[in-house]
Design a protein that fits this description.
Protein-Tyrosine Phosphatase, Chain A, 142 residues, 4 helices, globular, 5-stranded mixed sheet
Length: 142
């Protein structure tokens, strides 16, 4: 049975396909409601252990992923899991790295790379994707 997020979930991004991904900032604490089934954590250091399956993508604040191939693989994993699972993507503040990752996941879901930042800003957070190089990364995402 599918265990996806409820529409009232804080930080929820609904992709055009109907898949949902929760974005959040780890500094803001764990939100109320059900735990994710899978989490992708975008940090410059290894994240704390979770009670759910998780993956760490090394990514310093305000920069780009340290390993771009690993990033593509991680974003595809999030997109695939979001079909049937509660998936979250999180960094420290939940805006720059998280927004960039969500925009890349939106590209995988069919949003044009040139429109993905605007899509995430409209449907997740107006301040998502913080730096010019993060915007360029999304525009050139494979």
């Amino acid at each position: 049975m599918a265990t996806t997020w409820d529409d009232s979930t804080a930080g929820l991004l609904r992709l055009p396909s109907g898949r949902t991904v929760r974005g959040r900032g780890l500094r803001h604490g764990t939100p109320t409601g059900p735990d994710p089934d899978f989490g992708l954590y975008l940090l410059g250091h290894e994240p704390p252990a979770t009670d759910w399956t998780s993956r760490w993508l090394r990514w310093r604040d305000f920069w780009l992923p340290a390993d771009r191939g690993d990033a593509v693989d991680a974003f595809r994993e999030v997109w695939l899991r979001a079909q049937t699972q509660r998936v979250e993507v999180a960094c420290g503040g939940g805006k720059g790295r998280t927004g960039t990752a969500l925009a890349c996941i939106a590209v995988i879901d069919g949003v044009a790379p040139g429109d993905a930042v605007a899509y995430v800003r409209a449907h997740y957070s107006p301040s998502a994707v913080e730096t010019p190089w993060q915007r360029r990364y999304v525009a050139r995402f494979p």
